[in-house]
Design goal:
Length: 279
Amino acid sequence: MSTQTIVITGSTRGIGKGLAVEFLKRGHQVVVTGRSQEAVDRAVEELSPNGPVIGRPCDVRDFDAVQAVWDAGVERFGRIDMWINNAAVATENRLTAELDPKQIAATVDTNLTGTMFGTRVALAGMLKQGGRGRIYMFEGFGSNGMMRPGLATYGATKRALRYYTAAVAAECKDTPVLIGSLSPGIVVTDLLIYSSKNEDPAKWEKSKRFLNILGDTVDVVTPWLAEQALASEKQGAMIAWLTTAKSMGRFAGAFLLGRRRDIISEAEARLEKEGHTGI
């Protein structure tokens, strides 16, 4: 496979950074983004030993900033072959009546409008440059319509993105640009821990048992996602890590053998040590 240039928004940590590592290991070139210059510089420094990488600060809610990411990638690497709309935020785990309106707006604007801006920039650029291109949206809790108190706003953005992915894929059916989505399942990231931090302690302990059965760490999920994203040839494809069959198998295994690691507590301890208080 020839070398490809891949843009991953929101990739200074978590799944986005994990994907950057995997693409670089496979001989590709990566453009990472984050909301601060400091975070971008740190990520580029840490990723550089793996391969060619540049970074640019970008608030995906700003269309001009998103366009600047595309322009920087083309200037450095000549073209962009894949664009992954990974950047996302979540509100605190509170009922809608208790939420800060600023958190609601930030979540909708980042997860939904930001993805639309990224898709608009990447699609126009790929059609102009010619040749095969791929654009991926990121699924998350709520994409399939599942509901949970405290995640109404975040879930609504992900549900809307499933429609958006299908609609743009239909628009692109006669073009060389493939539209698809990446569904990582339940990955223990800072975002997941933060979105649950206000849950009732007793309920959180119960949730942790569930998450430790179905959850995975970034280093487990991202190699598979990277391989599938590179290989996909289907318009509108949904690349899903945690299938129904896999979920059932894990519950059966947990009943018989138990879960070996408490990955949620490990993540909480790490965040506390690093002094993170939010996303």
